[in-house]
């Protein structure tokens, strides 16, 4: 399938940014990119059987190489999809948030569900034995987070989106297959727009949408963190036990 991107000039307001968010998330679902079955055979001699995700010593491990990174991304997308599902279904969603905020948060909910379901379907079709190698549906606990609090929800959304961008950026160097790297690049661009939109909701008309706490002022690039730095953060919300022994 040939992907066609149409660019048009828009009014630089949050409403326009929201419209772009809506289009960018839906575009991902129609890229036609399907994961091809593979294993990280180059590493088989050094790390036998670790290229594929699966249960090892009674605990699910994400594996290594391309499949390890994609399963890692699937875990993070499960978290984000679950979070926004709870946000839009909270009892006071329609009263706590403004109309614009509801629109943005609802769009983000749809995006993350698309991302989660895309990874699940693609991995399910690519893994040699998905019945035992596909990461199970994870369970989550948000502790004392009040989903009826605008301040708490937006702060958590900001943390998750910033973490997601850093996660994809940090994992990019681990991906060997060009098509997979392209996929990760498309998704991280959407996640970065999510982060920008949430930051603009928290502090409108400011520079926070690309603040120096997430963008390196000397390089102009977003933060990049290895899985070993990201997973302990995600573990604050994920209650299902799994390991990532073969990811750096």
From TrEMBL:
Q: Which organism is it from?
A: Flavobacterium potami
Q: Which Pfam families match?
A: Ferritin_2 (PF13668)
Q: Mind giving the lineage of the organism this protein is from? A: Bacteria, Pseudomonadati, Bacteroidota, Flavobacteriia, Flavobacteriales
Q: Which InterPro entries match?
A: Ferritin-like_SF
Q: What is this protein called?
A: Ferritin-like domain-containing protein
